[in-house]
Amino acid sequence: MANPGAEEDHLARYRSPLVSRYASAEMAFNFSERKILFPLQSLGLAITDEQIKEMEANLDNIDFKMAAEEEKKLRHDVMAHVHTFAHCCPKAAAIIHLGATSCYVGDNTDLIVLRDGFDLLLPKLARVISRLGDFAEKHADLPTLGFTHYQPAQLTTVGKRCCLWIQDLCMDLQNLERARDDLRFRGVKGTTGTQASFLQLFEGDHSKVEELDRLVTAKAGFKRAYMVTGQTYSRKVDIEVLSVLASLGASIHKICTDIRLLANLKEIEEPFEKDQIGSSAMPYKRNPMRSERCCSLARHLMTLVLDPLQTASVQWFERTLDDSANRRVCLAEAFLTADIILSTLQNISEGLVVYPKVIEKRIRQELPFMATENIIMAMVKAGGNRQDCHEKIRVLSQQAAAVVKQEGGDNDFIARVRADPYFSPIHKQLESLLDPSSFTGRAPQQVAKFLKEEVRPALIPYQSKMGGKIELAL
């Protein structure tokens, strides 16, 4: 049973946590009901300056309560606002929505919102790339154990591993830029996309219809409009938009999964604040909650692309209305979710903590086995027989592996090599043969070249928006 007065209590009604808990104010506003379209100038029609001025003066004068009442009565969202706007603009009431259709308002507004959504996301993504680039540069030379199949493999560096993350994000940056720049305006197309109503208004003057389409498109800040549409712009556009956002979600999920695994290894941790509680039951825990949040929301983001895929596939002829409710949810949620995980990842990347001693200890556990080929080569140069040396090392390495796996001891392979007179010719070389930096190949050089030639140039358009740190509200 509902509590009395529940409609006044915001805690008594479901609110999307994307808005109420996580989203930035800018992205939340971008998908709010206050994001409105502009009035049109005329091309020789009987529209007075007084009517235009009246509409301009009332652009922000929106009676949402009246609009809700009108929509309840009319069962039509756009016409509800047309009636509400006409109430504020009695002199212009006759020409509001002249020649237009609901999708002229709705679809054109959606395209503006999608474009502006990209404009909010792109600088955030650039900031994440920049922060991770600084981290990669700082740790370009720090050797760390590489993993394939999550099994110990050859060494890499902390900075090089971070560059793998950055490379994926740079691809996402390019994809978001392309999707943003590929967006066109629906423009002035009419009920089924033929522009018939506008051709009638201009008494058969095709040039004026084309000029109106061009003027409205330019007024909205677009360089191009779609040349052909049905009642709506093609819903494949929404597929393209949400595909690049889903791909961004996959990148962030991978990055934050790596961070969670590294936190378990105690090699790298996300920021952990002084009074932060990792677990209500286990006070010692430092759970990677930020990275877990990113993974959780990234999974939601990746699934949202299924909505426009299915919607586009079932649009009948010039349009059917079963797209509307679905798009209200999936488009907004995709941008809000991407906004949240980018802000969270920026916060993570600005406070990553590295534990070199733990990293070094793990390397020391695995490096002796990796160094066997170096030891064999050194023995051959000292006059030894490769086959004899290989057999000696095989026996000693198996003995050392048994100590590690069966007894839980440290890897004592090098101690066994030192104790064996056979290897006396290279005993003095063992330290240099075991220098971790000699096992990282060109990783440091790759980091420097990648940051210089690919990453930094990609961030140039966003240099004026690189400032500011992210502090998470929750």
Automatic annotation (TrEMBL):
Enzyme class, UniProt record, top EC level: lyase
Pfam families: ADSL_C, Lyase_1
EC number from the UniProt entry: 4.3.2.2
SUPFAM superfamilies: L-aspartase-like (SSF48557)
PROSITE patterns in UniProt: FUMARATE_LYASES (PS00163)
Recorded metabolic or biological pathway in which this protein acts: Purine metabolism; IMP biosynthesis via de novo pathway; 5-amino-1-(5-phospho-D-ribosyl)imidazole-4-carboxamide from 5-amino-1-(5-phospho-D-ribosyl)imidazole-4-carboxylate: step 2/2; Purine metabolism; AMP biosynthesis via de novo pathway; AMP from IMP: step 2/2
Keywords: Lyase, Purine biosynthesis
Domain of life of the source: Eukaryota
Sequence ranges assigned to domain Adenylosuccinate lyase C-terminal in this UniProt record: 367-451
Gene Ontology biological process terms from the UniProt entry: 'de novo' AMP biosynthetic process; 'de novo' IMP biosynthetic process
Keyword match Lyase: yes
Reactions catalysed: (2S)-2-[5-amino-1-(5-phospho-beta-D-ribosyl)imidazole-4-carboxamido]succinate = 5-amino-1-(5-phospho-beta-D-ribosyl)imidazole-4-carboxamide + fumarate; N(6)-(1,2-dicarboxyethyl)-AMP = fumarate + AMP
GO terms for MF: (S)-2-(5-amino-1-(5-phospho-D-ribosyl)imidazole-4-carboxamido) succinate lyase (fumarate-forming) activity; N6-(1,2-dicarboxyethyl)AMP AMP-lyase (fumarate-forming) activity
Residue ranges crossing the lipid bilayer per the database entry: none
GO cellular component, one term: cytosol
Function summary: Catalyzes two non-sequential steps in de novo AMP synthesis: converts (S)-2-(5-amino-1-(5-phospho-D-ribosyl)imidazole-4-carboxamido)succinate (SAICAR) to fumarate plus 5-amino-1-(5-phospho-D-ribosyl)imidazole-4-carboxamide, and thereby also contributes to de novo IMP synthesis, and converts succinyladenosine monophosphate (SAMP) to AMP and fumarate.
Similarity comment: family membership: Belongs to the lyase 1 family. Adenylosuccinate lyase subfamily.
Quaternary structure and interacting proteins, as annotated: Homotetramer. Residues from neighboring subunits contribute catalytic and substrate-binding residues to each active site.
Descriptive protein name: Adenylosuccinate lyase
